[in-house]
Amino acid sequence: MQESPAVLEIFKSTAKDEMEHAEKLGERIVYLGGIPTKKPEPIVEGGDLKKMIHDDLAKERNKYVRKRYAVS
What's the burial of 11, exposed, middle or buried (CB within 10 Å: 0-12/13-18/19+)? Predict the structure, then answer.
């Protein structure tokens, strides 16, 4: 599978959005008197486009499960 510049740009944009979200979440945690975690999840790098999309989907599913657990 060939790499797609359009898809790579989507990944870059999404990564920036996720960083901004994490920063806002950290600020909110501090505001509420907590201490945000300083241990990020491992970063999965490399691979072809299909692997990148698969890895991203797995992270999104994991994130969904953790958020669902946190509010239950």
Answer: middle
